[in-house]
Specification:
Elements: H1 3-10, H2 13-23, H3 31-52, E1 60-62, E2 72-75, E3 81-87, H4 102-115, E4 120-127, H5 130-138, E5 148-152, H6 159-165, H7 167-174, H8 182-199, E6 204-205, H9 206-214, H10 231-238, E7 243-246, E8 251-256, E9 260-267, H11 271-283, H12 288-292
Helix pairs in contact: 1-2, 1-4, 3-7, 3-8, 3-9, 8-9
Length: 296
């Protein structure tokens, strides 16, 4: 049974008709959709670190699903938990105003998820203004407070502007970069936006989203996966007198005596690094002079 049919059963005919009308024709563009995209990118970047980096199951991310609270949704494995977010980048926001109050959307979403067998539901109202977010947190209706929250997240006209005023987004992206210069953080954010927008409308696995970002081969991204190092590769490099290397930050950094040093331009998790290993194993350089041309 899909959510629209289920809503008739658990929320009533009037609520179901509202849900159908809410999704008829999709969403218009403008600042509202842009705000949702920025927030989705922030969560995606943060979740890459929280899950993929730590070898944990990654969730599905979605927007514009057949839900009462659908601006952004995080779907955890086997319906163990659904996290719903309602974003409001407008002046007049309250829990109870309008024909379809936000509090009612939260209540209906809880009922809908319970009817679908979702283990845990959370619903969060996201606002750009800290003062307004604080007021709405204090005025939250008691009956939704055990599964609801209010979060502040800034709005920027451009990604560059937002990165300068929203530390949560900047930090989430910076954690994925080896050298967290603003231009590299912005570039990574743009790649996330492109992948996210191309998947809008259907649930997208975070792993697939991240792999889509990595297909652009950004050489400033920290490697999050285990790197397979060939034993013979290590043995060859260890016997070259005066040569040292590290891979702690996701890149192959090397030094020779005190006269030379450098960093390979591609990450240790890339296919290019695997090819680099194969070449070293095949050629077996025994001196730095024989190795040096492969480090340029």
């Amino acid at each position: 049974m899909d959510n629209l049919e289920l809503s008739k059963k658990v929320c009533g005919l009037a609520a179901s008709a509202y849900l159908a009308n809410k999704h008829r024709g999709g969403k218009a563009g403008g600042e509202g959709v842009q705000y949702e995209n920025w927030f989705a990118v922030y969560n995606a970047a943060k979740l890459v670190t929280d899950t993929i980096q730590n070898g944990l199951p990654a969730p599905f991310l979605s927007t514009q699903t057949m839900d009462f609270v659908d601006d952004f949704v995080i779907l955890w494995n086997e319906d163990s938990c659904h996290q719903h977010f309602q974003l409001k980048n407008t002046e007049n926001v309250s829990w109870s105003s309008g024909d379809h109050p936000i509090a009612d959307d939260f209540r209906y979403q809880k009922l809908l998820n319970e009817g679908a067998g979702v283990g845990k539901t959370s619903a969060t109202l996201v606002l750009p203004c800290p003062e307004k977010a604080g007021r709405l947190e204090k005025s939250m209706p008691e009956d939704i407070s055990n599964y609801s929250a209010v979060e502040q997240f800034a709005f920027g006209e451009t990604l560059n502007h937002l990165l300068q005023i929203e530390p949560k987004l900047r930090d989430a992206l910076a954690n994925l970069c080896v050298n967290a210069d603003l231009d590299k953080i912005e570039r990574l954010g743009s790649l996330f936006v492109g992948e996210w927008v191309s998947n809008c409308g259907t649930p997208c696995n975070l792993v697939d989203l991240w792999e889509g970002v990595l297909r652009h081969e950004p050489n400033y991204v920290r490697s999050l996966s285990r790197v397979d190092i060939l034993e013979k590769f290590e043995a060859i490099l260890m016997q070259i007198e005066g040569f040292h290397y590290t891979m702690g930050q996701g890149f192959f950094e090397w030094s020779y005596l005190e006269s030379d040093s450098g960093v390979l331009e591609y990450s240790v998790g890339s296919e290019k690094f695997s090819e680099f290993q194969r070449i070293i194993v095949m050629e077996e350089p025994s001196t730095f002079e024989e190795l040096e041309r492969h480090l340029i």
